Amino acid sequence: STQGFIFDLDGVIVDTAKYHYLAWKNLANNLGFDFTEEQNELFKGVSRVESLKLLLEIGDKTISQEEFNQLLISKNEEYLEYIEKMDASEILPDVPKVLMHLKDEKAPIALGSASKNATPILEKVQLLSYFDTIVDGNDVTKAKPDPEVFLLGAQQLNIPAEQCIVFEDSIAGIQAANKANMISIGIGDAKVLHEADHVFDDFTKISIQFLNKLIAG
Ligand code: B16
Ligand code: MG
Fold first, then answer.
1. Is 75 in the pocket of ligand 1 (CB under 6 A)?
2. Cis check: omega of the bond before 147, within 30 degrees of 0
3. Does the Cβ of 8 fall within 6 Å of ligand 1?
4. How large is the ipTM?
5. How far is the CA of 216 from the centre of ligand 2 (A)?
6. Contact 207, 174 (CB under 8 A)
7. Nearest partner of 51 among 65, 37, 40, judged by Cα
8. Relative to the alpha carbon of 20, which ligand is closest?
9. pTM of the predicted protein model
10. What confidence category does residue 41 fall into, taking pLDDT thresholds of 50, 70 and 90?
11. Contacts (Cβ under 8 Å, ≥6 apart) of 3
C-alpha cells in the first residue's frame, strides 16, 4: 500500500511563524496592547480571521466589521513585505533532504496549510515542484483543528486518510491530523506537541530509516 505525505508549511518547511508574529505584534501594539511569543503559540496553524479574533480577545477590544476587515488587510500587507524578501536560505534544516528522499521513493506529497500565501512562499524558496498537490487556506472553509485541509490533501493524492502521514508544528494541526486518522508527526517542542504520535525537534532528527518505515506503512 502507498503512504501519502502531507506537510504543513509555516513552522515545518519555513519559519514564517516569526513573520506572522511580527505582523500581529505590530497590530496589537498599534491597538495599545502587547502580544507575546508565548501567546503566539496558539496562533500557529490558525487561519487569518480566527487569529485576529483571538488577538482582539487578548487585547479585550471590540471593533466594527469594517475595521476588522481593514486590520486583516494591513496585517497581510506587512506579512507580504516579509515574505517578499524570502529565499531558499530560509528553508528549515534537512527539509530538502526529506522531500528528495520521498520523491526518490515515489511517495505522493501534498501541502496542507492554513495559509492563503502558501504557493508564493513555496515559489520563493523554490520547493513548489516537490508537491503533487497544494491544499491551502484558499481551498478550505474550516480551519485547523478541523481535519478538512488534510482530508482534502489525502483525497487529492488519492490515498486513504489512514495511510497519510502529517508533519505539523502546531497544536491545532496535530489535532487536525489526529481527527483525520492520520499519523501525526510533530516538528518542535515535545511538551507543546504531546498529542502527536511522534515528535522531533526538527528534520535533522528524523533518520532515513524512520522515513523508510513510514513509506513502507
Ligand atoms: P495567511 P500553516 C498558518 O500556516 C500559520 O501557521 C498561521 O499562523 C497563519 O495565521 C495561517 O497560516 C494563515 O496564514 O495569513 O498567510 O493566510 O502553519 O497552516 O502552514
Ligand atoms: Mg504550521
1. no
2. no
3. yes
4. 0.93
5. 26
6. no
7. 40
8. 1
9. 0.92
10. confident
11. 107, 159, 163, 164, 165, 214, 215, 216, 217
Radius of gyration from C-alpha coordinates of the chain: 17
Q: Read off the pLDDT of residues 171-185 as tens digits, 9 standing for 90 and up.
A: 999 999 999 999 999
Q: Own/partner pairs for 202-210, CB < 8 Å, 24+ apart?
A: 202/92, 202/93, 202/94, 203/92, 203/93, 203/94, 203/95, 203/97, 203/98, 204/93, 204/94, 206/94, 206/98, 208/101
Name the amino acid, one letter, at 84. Answer: E
Neighbours of ion ligand 2 (CB under 5 A): 8, 10-11, 45, 169-170
Set of cell numbers at residue 125: 524558496
Tell the residue number behind the cell numbers 485541509, with chain if given: 149
Torsion (CA) 211, 142, 123, 154 in degrees, nearest 10: 40
Amino acid 1: pLDDT: 76
